[in-house]
User: Which sequence fits this backbone?
């Protein structure tokens, strides 16, 4: 079974998806981490972020791998922390908008998805990557609440700056943030992680 969890940054996607996967004994795939790792690689290797074909070649040559403990690796280097830097937050939509890049990423995401029961989180999972997913959820939340949540992940960055960054990223990601028409929309503004996980677990049970 595939559980697709899509939505913009700060809606609780990663925490919800990884907690749900652990609870169900499903594998967990963070597709945002794949785009982030490619952005990190492009910076390391000096690849022009406006050159879609060159970025796609880079993505092909250096697939991202995920450790069982949630670590993200490229070329045997642990990039788990590096890909969460504010600079990567700002640059990743520039990389992710290239169709050539998305094609490589989606192929890899589909290959990883067919290996068994999985929870996959991203922006276009239920609509484009795995439209046959048995459970599809699209998370949303108020932007100020999303910025407040981000302050825990990005200590040292002002809440106002984080809110402005989130709005800018929403705009840049809009084209590729696609709720599936049959996704269940869940507003997480006033919900705890546990409540969101419970709600999605109910949907999983109902679809078994
Ligand atoms: O989910 P996260 O904030 O880590 O995603 C980082 C970025 O990766 C997004 O801002 C977006 O540009 C890109 N992304 C995407 N499609 C996905 C997942 C992430 O374009 N399925």
Assistant:
């Amino acid at each position: 079974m595939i559980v697709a969890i899509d939505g913009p940054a700060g809606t609780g996607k990663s925490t919800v998806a990884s907690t749900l996967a652990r609870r169900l004994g499903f594998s967990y795939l963070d597709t945002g981490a794949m785009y982030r790792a490619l952005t990190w690689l492009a910076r390391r290797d000096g690849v022009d972020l406006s050159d879609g074909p060159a970025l796609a070649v880079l993505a092909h040559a250096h697939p991202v791998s995920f450790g069982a403990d949630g670590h993200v690796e490229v070329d045997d280097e642990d990039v788990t922390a590096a890909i969460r830097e504010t600079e990567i937050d700002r640059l990743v939509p520039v990389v992710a908008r290239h169709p050539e890049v998305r094609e490589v990423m989606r192929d890899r995401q589909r290959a990883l998805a067919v290996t068994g029961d999985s929870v996959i989180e991203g922006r276009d999972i239920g609509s484009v990557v795995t439209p046959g997913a048995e459970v599809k959820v699209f998370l949303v939340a108020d932007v100020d609440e999303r910025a407040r949540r981000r302050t825990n992940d990005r200590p040292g960055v002002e809440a106002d700056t984080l809110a402005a960054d989130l709005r800018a990223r929403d705009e840049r990601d809009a084209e590729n943030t696609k709720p599936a028409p049959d996704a269940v929309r869940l507003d997480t503004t006033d919900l705890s992680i546990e409540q969101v996980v419970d709600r999605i677990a109910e949907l999983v049970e109902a679809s078994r």
About this structure: DSSP finds nine helices and eight strands in the chain. The chain has a mean pLDDT of 95. The CA atoms of residues 3 and 179 lie 14 Å apart. Residues 9, 31-32, 35-36, 92-93, 96, 122-124, 169, 173, 176 surround cytidine-5'-monophosphate (CB under 6 Å).
